[in-house]
Design goal:
Length: about 70
């Protein structure tokens, strides 16, 4: 059985997390997050900026609030 996903998968305060969308020939990669620990949020476009966004989320938000940072 298939589970129906919400039409809008962007993180929110009620549903925090990280979302990354890979680029195509017609668009650049995109990413955004909302931290469930401190409420911080950020957005990025382009491969380099999205990689920096993922690193920031991993090092300082989301999982870092549960484990004390990247190990």
């Amino acid at each position: 059985m298939f589970r129906k996903l919400p039409a809008d998968l962007r993180p929110t305060e009620d549903s925090p997390g990280l979302r990354v969308k890979g680029g195509t020939r017609y668009s650049s990669s995109q990413g955004d997050y909302v931290c469930g620990g401190c409420g911080a949020e950020d957005r990025a476009n382009g491969d380099t900026d999205v990689q920096a966004l993922v690193d920031d989320y991993t090092d300082h938000h989301g999982p870092a609030h549960r484990t004390g940072g990247r190990r």
